[in-house]
Amino acid sequence: MLTVAHMSLQAAGTASPAEATQSRIGRRRPRDETRPSADAAYYSVSDVAERLRVTPRTVYELLASGQLRSVRIRRASGRLGVHRIPSDYLAEYEAQLRADA
């Protein structure tokens, strides 16, 4: 049975919801395969904001743009939870800031 959402996808030229999902997946940023070191400390967004003397919103914008990397900690329900920024990634970002200055 087709739902209204399925019919609107077909009317828009998309054959199925699976294809629509695939097109969204294709737009994701490539995953960075480098991992933080095992002994890295993990900072919250507010900790990083305080350290960089910016607002938490600015930190979220840096994360969204890919300028600052993070690790996502999942909730027990499996949904995405919070960002944690390993000390390695923060040091890398700070070094880039110094190089650009």
Features:
Multidrug-efflux Transporter Regulator, Chain: A, Domain 2; 2 domains; globular; alpha+beta; 13% strand; 5 helices
Overview of the molecule:
With 101 residues, the chain is of the alpha+beta class. The chain folds into two domains: 29 residues, no CATH class; 65 residues, Multidrug-efflux Transporter Regulator, Chain: A, Domain 2 (Orthogonal Bundle), CATH 1.10.1660. Helix content is 50%, strand content 13%. The protein has five helices and three strands; from the N terminus they run H-H-E-H-H-E-E-H. It starts with a helix and ends with a helix. The N terminus is likely disordered.
Strand order within the widest beta sheet: 1-3-2
The count of domains is 2
| Basic shape | globular
Average pLDDT rating: 77
List the helices and strands and how they pair.
Layout: H1 4-11, H2 17-26, E1 42-43, H3 45-52, H4 56-65, E2 71-74, E3 80-86, H5 87-100
Antiparallel strand pairs: 1-3, 2-3
Helix pairs in contact: 3-4
Characterize this entry briefly:
This protein is of the alpha+beta class. It has 5 helices and 3 strands.
